[in-house]
## 1
Amino acid sequence: MQPQANRIEDIRSHFPALERVHSGHPVAYFDGPGGTQVPRSVVEVMNDYLYNHNANTHWGYPTSNETDELIQDARVTFADFLNASSDEIVFGQNMSSLTFHLARALGRGVEPGDEMIVTELDHHANVDTWRSLEKERGVTIRVLPMDAESGQLELADLPALLNKRTKLVAVGAASNAIGTISDVAAVCRQARDAGALSFVDAVHFAPHKLIDVDAIGCDFLACSAYKFYGPHIGILFGRRDLLESIDFPKLRSAPDNSPDRVETGTQSHESIVGAAAAVDFIASLGSGTNRRERLANAFSDMHSRDEELIATLRNGLSSIEGVRVYGPGIDAARTSLVSFTVGDHLSKDVSKYLTGKGIFASHGDFYAATVVERLGVARQGLLRIGCSIYTTAGEVERLIEGVRDFVSEHR
Ligand SMILES: Cc1ncc(COP(=O)(O)O)c(C=O)c1O
């Protein structure tokens, strides 16, 4: 293994965006939970597809055959990424669209008064998608609460929410607002025992921990490649028997085999090959005899770095007067994301100040609207700092100094 400093420099050398300078400062991207930067290899694969293999699928000529093969290869790559089978991998525009599509399809099979469970901790792409069935199908939505102090789901409340009418439990693997990692395997087990389906939103989890749909025991899981160094595209895992049997809205003459029957219209082929290249980029950072092993090794390495960065970040920010850090402590299961407020300042203003120092961080509610309401910061919003594979300890120090400067200039 290379020494840490050389290794991070090597990783960074793959990302042209890291050469950007803003107001005389090298840009430090802390907006990974909103979308990560993209390595050269991903863009090259996308260019190559568009220049040399571009076609629609399922026809008899070479570029169409190549497109079919590349898409199938990408399904195999994502099967390795999620520990699934290639015919359980569905591509789509993004997680929200895929989830709406699935909700609409599952909605065709529910009765008024059937129930679904969502959580307070989730991004609303895993809440409002299911809530749409309240109006459309008369589904009753029940809500698993979060504890605002610890930033954890109140898992002990789940059994009381489950009953014979529960059709689905929708839960997030990691919070994109405060970084909590939830025990989704336990949630999926309880859903299964109650005869309900489970849907896991792994969008914020996927860049930080290697997903294993088998170990999680979920029926469905969604993630988005643009959060883990790929292009803007979503990926849905669904258990084969479900993908084959659910009544998905589709065109009469579109393929009826799984997973094609779930994919509406022509896909972004260049994004599919780019997403697979992003998985291969991560795998290239690890060692092992096959892709899954290399991914496991790379993720374990990333996780160790994440832990170091989160400790510096959380401790550093907490030590600044007026800064309030939200979410789980460093000993809890969590990602390398810290959200905070500075006194009564709007998070937008703190973000703007940091931008002047070349520090790019996102602010607001990040579509996790219930989380910011429960934390009592809906008006001022959170400032969110997310570490990525290319984040350095030096950038974290710069960020902490930047917030310290903001506080001393706004006394
Ligand atoms: C946890 C989480 N879930 C869902 C989404 C929505 O993903 P998409 O933009 O692919 O629809 C996001 C996007 O930020 C997210 O962070």
Note: The first strand starts at residue 21 and ends at 22.
## 2
Amino acid sequence: MSKVCPVSDNDSSEVFDLAVIGGGINGCGIARDAVGRGLSVILLEQGDLAQGTSSASTKLFHGGLRYLEFYEFRLVREALKERETLLQAMPHISWPMRFVLPHHSGLRPAWFLRLGLFIYDHLGGRKLLPPTRSVDLKTDPVGVPLKDDFRKAFEYSDCWVEDSRLVVLNARDAADRGADVRTRTSCDHAERVEGIWRVTLRDVDSGAKTTIQAKALVNAGGPWVDQVIQNRLGINMSDRIRLVRGSHIVTKKLFDHPQSYIFQNADGRIVFAIPYENDFTLIGTTDVDHEDAPENVTCTPEESDYLRKSASEYFKRPIEEADVVWTYSGVRPLYDDGAKSATAATRDYVLKVEDRDGDAPLLSIFGGKITTYRRLAEAALEKLTPYFPKMRRDWTATEALPGGDFKYTDFDRLVTELRIAHPWVDEVWARRLVRAYGTQTRALLEGATRKSDWVRRLAGT
Ligand SMILES: Cc1cc2nc3c(=O)[nH]c(=O)nc-3n(C[C@H](O)[C@H](O)[C@H](O)COP(=O)(O)OP(=O)(O)OC[C@H]3O[C@@H](n4cnc5c(N)ncnc54)[C@H](O)[C@@H]3O)c2cc1C
């Protein structure tokens, strides 16, 4: 494996094994995996890490119950297995969550829901998360906020994840292992020169341009993947990407228990209502073909109304416009499989290698889920193995992300230990610190005896 080294021309450019375009979850996941296998890696992100789709998700590690209806068994099985692998590798930023699926008498029959959940429970080899249970909404506290028409529900498991933190921790780990992670650095142009990629980078603040070289190029541009291929690399593309916008509304807290709801809509879609940041409820998402540029994405009034109406079909108290405190929107970069509707378009990932008969390879990533990012990275590196035959084997399934080296059931113990060691840290703050930094919180607070020490440390003064 080559180390990063200057080349002999006057360009002061460096040669990397891999240049990765895109600091979303897929780019950062691939960079981490690759550097851990011994490749020299540079990662280029034109803005901030996770500034694109990877901070605008519903924030679930989930199998995707509704994909069963579209026969996406491969994707669902892989995602279900990943939930537990990821939960164990990052128990600070991810935790188990229970989802309540009320039976709606006008929609899917109860036996159909139960069957779907039976498959969901068994398809992915669930070991840690509790199984599905039936819920009597007349007696269970989760029935209290719902209209009286709803009597029966099923409750199943998935996991929550802090999506943007997930991206940052992958980038952090990649950098700790030797990757060159460059934010606010755009890949402006890349071309193959004498069998190697020559990549022009632009510092988006100063406008300064530099050149590096790479033996392989990974295009993890998410919703910009086709723009990178066509505009930055000048390559004609046969594969098509389908941009599908998804929006969320955040309302004042609508219920007090820790479970989330998954509501069925008359249009066949589902909408989640999830406890969010202690005082709020997160409701989403929509599925709308996005015709505009990926960076021009906001929740339209129609989408906000749709989400309020969908959830109000179930909640006793209708959700008013005034309850909405914030909205956010992201664009799914889906592989265009020709599906009729945005809802039916595949959520599975597609990896394409182009190497013009043995030339330096370009690997482009289409689609994918936050949940499958680690497996996607493994699949990406498998595709690149012929070009780097000495590359080490896969390793990320059992390696914790920074701060994640503890058991997910020990989270409360970590918070208690922190409060004993630092009594000036209150409970809410302690939980927030352990959620962000996990076991690294100890080192971060080392020597601090009051809040102002910590604030000064953060400010670097
Ligand atoms: C509404 C919604 C809800 C979702 N919910 C879930 C969920 O609950 N669970 C789940 O598993 N998945 C979910 N997903 C899917 C998941 O969020 C995406 O699949 C994933 O975030 C895509 O990551 P990415 O790295 O491919 O793209 P991005 O995160 O968009 O990253 C691409 C990056 O490339 C950068 N870039 C582009 N061009 C250049 C260039 N020329 N130079 C340098 N950088 C460049 C961009 O700035 C961007 O940061 C959801 C998606 C949406 C939209």
Note: Confidence is low (pLDDT under 50) at residues 1-10.
